[in-house]
Amino acid sequence: MEYKVIMPYIGGVLSDNSYKFLNKSTKPIVNMWKRELARKVEALDIPKNIVQFHIKVHGKFEDERRPDIPNLFKVILDGLKKTKSYYGLGVDDKHFRAEDDGYELGFLNPVLEITIIPIFRRVSGNSN
Asked: CATH number of the domain at 3-121, please?
């Protein structure tokens, strides 16, 4: 089963090169974006026993002044992982495999379509 979240693309501030201040703290607008992503993912009610995920990111942008999607992976995966502030997918981002799923042009309101595909479930029960 696949789960899909649509998030606004708020510009270059989401890029791996721009989301932090020089003092290494994350910009507030990026933290708000990540919390919104986590809330949307939590609302999908994805089973909690999944420990690995394939994450595909597809962009819908206005024109060729678009980001390289892999430069957005760090912020997106940080928004999906479990932190002190939010649950996201409930696991650390080291358990995610990210994929650039391409892009389309001609959209006045740019968005990122994030597809979450569970790929490994935690085994429950006793091993005896």
From this structure: 3.30.1330.70
